[in-house]
Specification:
This protein has helices at residues 6-19, 45-60, 66-82, 110-127, 130-141, 188-195, 200-209, 231-234, 253-270, 315-319, 326-336, 367-381, 384-390, 393-402, and strands at residues 33-34, 42-44, 94-96, 108-109, 149-152, 155-163, 176-180, 214-217, 220-223, 245-246, 287-288, 295-296, 343-344, 347-348, 352-353, 360-361, 405-406. The chain is α+β, with helices and mostly antiparallel strands. The chain folds into two domains: 1-143, Alpha/alpha barrel (Glycosyltransferase); 213-386, Glycosyltransferase (Alpha/alpha barrel), CATH 1.50.10.140.
Length: 407
Amino acid sequence: MKKITVEMIQKTAFQFLIDYTNLNEQSPGFGLTVDHSKRAELASIASTGFMLSALVIGAQYQYISKDKALDIARRTLKTLAQVVPHYHGFFPHFLDIETGQRHKKCEYSTIDTALALCGVMTADEYFQDEGLSADAKLILERVDWSILFHDKDGKKLLYMAYNPDKGGDYVERKPGFIHQWDMFAEQLMMYLMIAGSKHQDVALELYHGFDRKIGEYHNQKYIYSPGNSLFVYQFPLAWLDLRSIVDDQGINWFENARKATEAHHQAAVDHKHLYRTFSDQVFGFSASDTPKGYRVYGGLPNTMGKLDTDGTIAPFAAIGSLPMTPKLSLNAIEAMSKIEGLWGPYGFYDAFNLEDETPWISQRYYAINKGLELLMTNAYLSGDVHRYFMNHEIVIKGLEVLKWQKK
């Protein structure tokens, strides 16, 4: 097999996001991107945010003409502004890819909306198009973050989601707001968005509200999320270039993600005698397809006190840390490229598991996982998305309000 390069991963991920986006100009759902490749009728609002960011990379690398990319971006923002339903600006997690309407009783999700908004902001800053910017402004300004604000145990927090329907997704008792961001996870970009909006007066208090649990694994001491799935460290950094930025408490989230990745790698090395999928090179505990369906696995430390895995490895997890741990990630890419059947038409499949005599390799692609691959390979190669996103006025203002500064 020919050598798999980082740019090959970038290009195949870009092509997946374009090929699995509704580009039918007569469809109300134009611009919406699938959740995964085995269910073409179901779109994810987060996937759409990755696709909008992909247009910037595609235009920069001439995978697509800039005029074509702009046309797709314009039409997609029109869909988000005028077709997709929202609750105070927050989008449903899943949508019908043709109609653009909410899928069944899924939740209005804060994190999936935030990922979509990251794409909106990236496209807005890159294309500098009057019509596109008008729709971007509408989409961004109608998000009413204040409906999520609440106090708990003396701290100001954000709710995670909203679902008005009895029996709806994540509704346990009565419909309404669901859980809260009281822990460190993938929500960092939300605080910058809040700080860059009309709610800047409470942004710093909200940012200080979530717990920062410090754990240690093999001399890697870092702030970890409860389940310690690798994607939570990576998703915000797909857009936020925080390599040289510290917050008002001296935390550098890029460095924290580097330590988390190194701890994940070491956990794989330490457990390779138990799981033959693992090796000195292959690692990646994240949220992915598995032999038993979609699962969220994590590294160490975590709140369970043990490695949470069935031996499944997600290629995008190692690739998603390319900017933080280039040597570890490149070694993983080289090792995974030798696994027969793992590389498909759009790059590495979502996951693999070699625990049984017959190796299991997923035959599906999850769009947000391909999106993370795309943005992190781009961050490693040229930093196009980072450059434009960090130059958006909301981010510039948010950094100032949150007192995040260059170290």
